[in-house]
UniProtKB/TrEMBL annotation:
Protein's name in the database: Luciferase-like, subgroup
Organism: Isoptericola variabilis (strain 225)
Keywords: Oxidoreductase
CDD domains reported for this sequence: Tetrahydromethanopterin_reductase
Pfam family, any one: Bac_luciferase
Domain of life: Bacteria
InterPro entries for the chain: F420-G6PD/mer, Luciferase-like_dom, Luciferase-like_sf
Top-level taxonomy: Bacteria, Bacillati, Actinomycetota, Actinomycetes, Micrococcales
Ranges where the Luciferase-like domain occurs: 12-277
Annotated signal sequence range: none
UniProt GO molecular function: oxidoreductase activity, acting on paired donors, with incorporation or reduction of molecular oxygen
């Protein structure tokens, strides 16, 4: 079943709004709440802990934690703690980070892909309860094992955009997080590149790796959606901020969804038909009613997709 979620965007929303939004999303019936760790706004782990502790059912995803900011063991400890305290509800994601931001804090590395590879390998092994010794270019561990690995090991997702990163994520991660400017054509391309990475690792393609399979892979797609009389104009502004050319509604619909519950569901369904497992709505930066959007998605849109 395709799940439906919504992002708590930290750009216009302070931390004080996080728990009320999450509770509204859960009450509306949304499957997932997603969080960002964009520099220099809000902590992904701290935000996830706050949401998980304030809710009872909704799954919480982080899309994503920049690995240059973290030691792999610390990431594993943080993830294991939340996964152990809230089994089956935490969806951690990692990524190589926005390089300009990493440079600002002195964490930019020479090979972001090598770092992501080493971090993913160590993180997944530690969460699986393995004792890890490795000496890589960026990740060095000497006889490290978690005292409390989670009984329910969460899928380790990774952001992916470029071809090399998509292949790497297909090879090593348990799922991919696609950003909102990927669009329908970009999702098709991403699936092919992820499949190439899985094939290199001797794993089945995404079409054969749905939930319940031996090595499931979760494809998460962020996409902008809006409702109300100014929805189209707000979405056009959002796309201009991503440097996308959307001259008409047909071009806009390649990336966004808007209108009534039925129209928004139809737009989201186009992504689900490409193999997306989690449809995560990204509000526009000028969304006037974030809690209201979560209620609309959970109460009116999500039932049409189940």
């Amino acid at each position: 079943m395709t799940s439906v979620g919504c992002i708590f965007t930290p750009y216009e929303n302070p931390p004080s709004r996080l728990v009320p939004f999450a509770r509204a999303a859960e009450a509306a019936g949304l499957d997932e709440v997603w969080l960002w760790e964009d520099c220099f706004l809000e902590s992904g782990i701290a935000s996830a802990a706050a949401v998980l502790g304030a809710t009872e059912r909704v799954a919480v995803g982080i899309g994503v934690l920049p690995v240059p900011l973290r030691n792999a063991t610390l990431t594993a400890m943080e993830v294991a703690t939340l996964a152990g305290a809230f089994p089956g509800r935490f969806l951690p994601g990692v990524g190589h980070g926005v390089q300009d931001w990493m440079g600002q804090v002195g964490a930019r590395v020479g090979s972001p892909l090598t770092l992501l590879r080493e971090h993913l390998e160590a993180l997944r092994a530690l969460l699986a309860g393995e004792r890890v010794t490795t000496s890589g270019r960026y990740v060095t561990l000497d006889d490290v094992a978690l005292d409390w690995p989670p009984e329910v090991v969460p899928p380790v997702l990774s952001a992916a955009q470029g071809p090399k990163t998509l292949r790497l994520v297909g090879e090593l991660a348990d799922g991919a997080v696609l950003v909102a400017d990927t669009g329908l054509a970009g999702v098709r391309r991403a699936v092919g590149l992820l499949d190439e990475g899985r094939a290199a690792a001797g794993l089945p393609p995404l079409a054969e790796s749905r939930p319940g399979s031996e090595r499931p892979f979760r494809l998460v797609a962020n996409l902008a959606a809006a409702t109300g009389p100014d929805a189209v104009e707000r979405l056009r502004r959002e796309c201009r901020g991503w440097n996308l050319d959307v001259p008409d509604d047909a071009a806009l619909a390649e990336y966004c969804s808007w209108g009534s519950a039925e129209q928004v569901a139809d737009g989201l369904r186009r992504f689900a038909d490409l193999g997306v497992d989690a449809l995560v709505v990204q509000p526009t930066l000028d969304e006037p009613d974030l809690d209201g959007l979560a209620a609309f998605l959970g109460e009116e849109v999500a039932p049409l997709l189940r």
